[in-house]
Amino acid sequence: MTLPALPKSWEHILVEELKKPYFQQLQNFLAEERETQTIFPAEEDIFSAFELTPYENVNVLLLGQDPYHNHNQAHGLCFSVKPGIKPPPSLVNIFKELHSDLAVPTPEHGFLVTWAKQGILMLNAVLTVRAHSPNSHKNKGWEKFTDAAIAKVNEKPDPVVFVLWGGYAKKKLKLIDTNRHIVIQSAHPSPLSARNGFFGSKPFSAINQALLQLGKPEINWKVSNINTKNQLNI
After folding, report:
1. Residue 232 located in a structural domain
2. Which one from 45, 66, 147, 158 is the annotated catalytic residue?
3. Which positions, given as ranges, span the membrane (predicted)?
4. Residue 110 belongs to what domain range?
């Protein structure tokens, strides 16, 4: 398997990572996996987060862990699912908190491309997964690659809002200059932890307040029921 090319705005930023031995080993692993396993997301969607949010447009970085592992869910953005797919439990809780925080109506779908297009890099730490086997591509090299991406966002001359939900995401705090950037942390929206600090954390208003503080446009969090074919033209 040959991974799709990174979008140009990111390719020159991460070019050195693409040359490193671990990245070639990762590609070899994925090629072997593709021969015998079903892998999500589809090859053309693996770098969707980078395609939808060019480096120069990143104002917010929202970090997830692992792609959804059931059919027709993952499409390269953390927490987002393809149109027509029932939102998984974590996304249901995200929408509950969004309604509680900003009175945004609960969307009819979980396709969050409109968020990404507004400058939110919706990045999973691991970008692929074997079907029905969560964390199956953990520690194969993706974390080194996405850590490098986080570090490059940290190097942006203009401050960024980093959103870290849950213990796994909070471990990335070491990659962030908290003197320059704004970090918003809480429990993960998973049903296992949402009641331990995600519900009531009001992250969406906090993100917008942080963006205003930095002189950047607020996010329109409403996930409108527009023609998804238009959204898919990325």
Report:
1. no
2. 66
3. none
4. 8-218
In a domain, 67, yes or no: yes
**Of 212, 156, 207, nearest to 186 (Cα)?**
207
pLDDT tens digits, one per residue of 80-126: 999 999 999 999 999 999 999 999 999 989 999 999 999 999 999 99
**CATH assignment at residue 119:** 3.40.470.10
Residues of the chain with pLDDT under 70: 1-2, 226-234
Residue 66 designated active-site? yes
What would the two tokens of residue 198 be?
């995600």
Per-residue pLDDT tens digits for 155-173: 999 999 999 999 999 999 9
Q: Can you tell me the distance from the alpha carbon of 171 to that of 156, in angstroms, rounded to the nearest whole number?
A: 20
Number of domains the chain is built from:
1
Number of other residues whose CB lies within 10 A of the CB of residue 200: 12
